[in-house]
Amino acid sequence: MPEKVLVLVGTKKGAFIAESDGKRGSWKLRGPFCEHWPMNHVVGDAATGAIYGAGGNEWFGPAVWKSNDLGETWTHSSDGLAYEAGEEPIKAVWSLARRNGSLYAGVQPAGLFRSDDDGATWSHIEGLQNHPSRKDWNPGGAGLILHSIVTHPRDEEQIWVGISSAGVFYTWDGGKTWEPRNRGTRADFLPEGQNYPEFGQCVHCLVMAPGRPDRLYQQNHCGMYRSDDGGKNWQSIEKGLPSTFGFPAATHPRDADTLFLLPLNGDSAGRYVPDAKAAVWKTKDAGATWLDERKGLPQEDCYAGVLRQAMATDSLEPAGVYFGTSGGSLFASANEGENWSEIARHLPTILSVEAMVVSG
Amino acid sequence: MPNDTASSLSLVVARLPGVLIDLFPGAPRRVELPASTVKEMIDGLDALWPGMRDRMCDSRPAIRRHMNVFVDGEKATLKTRLAPGTEVFILTAISGG
């Protein structure tokens, strides 16, 4: 059966879907969906075709949206998506991860929830909030957000999360117990001599290499890193990149050594692409060397940024790579970054990009 | 819509904003239901359209910061008492960007 590629786009004003056949040469845009809510993360489950959206609306609060018909109709729920009475209420859902029959949601202020009924009801994974460091977590620029959820492909008890700016935390018992895993990652914003704390780093995006659960990559506020031991130790892989700052990271669907980053010019320099020229930086050797892929991308007067969840790959061969900008442009490459084209423009600020391949 | 004899003595009228009913297909802009406080009224709305409470209230619990509930021209809280026949206006605050 022919394949259909859906690029799921979360924006400041609703969700959108760009759709193509498996060739990925021609795209059609649908949306906006989800009643124009800010949608921080829209993900798809290729096994079922379901689409889930993590949202937070200034009027109506947090909710997870769901579509079972590729975006034609949507429902929403926040049943159980709440902290105890008296605590600071949840403002928004920031991240989603699907693992077998379970759905995980990361929220602001930082916490993790789980649904075992396809997003209809939610339960709080309280262990993370009970970590002794919780009282010392400080918000990053976007708030105290749990933006990255990484599940283990074979062991549902193991989960890694990324929190800005508390760092990476890991559980080995399904969320009852957590430990920080930030050794080797810098916090340049702390006083000299205190730049390698146990927690408090500003991780921007955390991803797992395909087929290698021990290998994690992260884009941090202060550098790019790889871990080959499940996050116990991190090594800098920023040599050869144009800056130490950026937001998103995307792994290849099959090659654990290939990673895509989109460095920006620095945290206090506007957070644009370096020299106002857009490029995706790709490594094929786990970060030892980097190649800038820019064919088809704007190379003049490009003052765009790309946010933490706004880059993704698809599962086809060769892999498609996608990213969306703060200025509302959506770019796609059907050949692992070698050539690019703009497949949508003038969208609201793009907050997230994910890809899903389904039977046509 | 609840309309039994026992509750008819304390019916109030909830006036809902369009952007809220957009989230609950089939919900009308004007709802009559029994309640003696704003909290009871919102609980009643949630019974009719599950999930509506979460859109109006947070977990403190309180009316959401950018939602306004007016009773007799005054901004209300969940504890505000409602006399029979009171018209309660639920409005979204000015916010956006």
Architecture overview:
Chain B: InterPro entries: Beta-grasp_dom_sf, Mopterin_synth/thiamin_S_b, ThiS/MoaD-like. Chain B: This is Sulfur carrier protein ThiS. Chain A: It holds the Pfam family BNR. The complex is a heterodimer of chains A (360) and B (97). Chain A has one domain: 7 Propeller (Methylamine Dehydrogenase, Chain H), CATH 2.130.10. Helix content of chain A is 0%, strand content 43%. Chain A is built from no helices and 28 strands. In chain A, the strands form 7 sheets. A 4-stranded antiparallel sheet of chain A has the order 3-2-1-28, with no helix packed on it. In chain A, strands 4-5-6-7 form a 4-stranded antiparallel sheet, with no helix packed on it. In chain A, strand 14 and strand 15 form a beta hairpin. Chain A starts with a strand and ends with a strand. The mean pLDDT of chain A is 97. In chain B, a hairpin with a 2-residue loop joins strand 5 (67-71) and strand 6 (74-75). Chain B has 97 residues and is of the alpha+beta class. Chain A binds chain B through residues 35, 58-61, 63, 76-79, 81-87, 89-90, and chain B through 19-20, 22-23, 50-51, 54-56, 58-61, 64, 66-67, 92-93, 95-96.
